[in-house]
Amino acid sequence: MKNLSIEDTDQASAGIWPFLIGSVVSLTGYAINKHRHQEEITVPGAATAMCFGAVTGGGIVGNLVWRPGFAAINAAGQAIAAEQ
């Protein structure tokens, strides 16, 4: 059996950052969109935006450069969240 080292733990925790960053970026975009249209932020809309952001991971710029398909999914998620 292999003993875990600090490097193993660092690599495991690094895997969650793209999900967290994508979630925060998507939630921020949702909040800005709602504020710009003078609409109220809803819990279902915020949760939807965060979920789509977490799934696509890494934010809009990274998705446009590396994963255009995920950027389209994120945009669709933002549209769904905007209606909730």
Short description:
With 84 residues, the chain is an all-alpha fold. It has five helices and no strands.
Enumerate how many helices there are, as a single number.
5
DSSP E strands, number: 0
**Unreliable sequence segments:** none
| Helix content estimate | over 70%
Can you give keywords for this protein?
mainly alpha; single chain; about 80 residues
What topology does this entry show?
Blueprint: H1 6-14, H2 17-36, H3 43-56, H4 59-66, H5 68-82
Helix pairs in contact: 2-3, 2-5, 3-5, 4-5
Describe the structure.
This protein is 79% helix and 0% strand. By secondary structure, the chain is mostly helical. It has one domain. The relative contact order is 0.17. The mean pLDDT is 76.
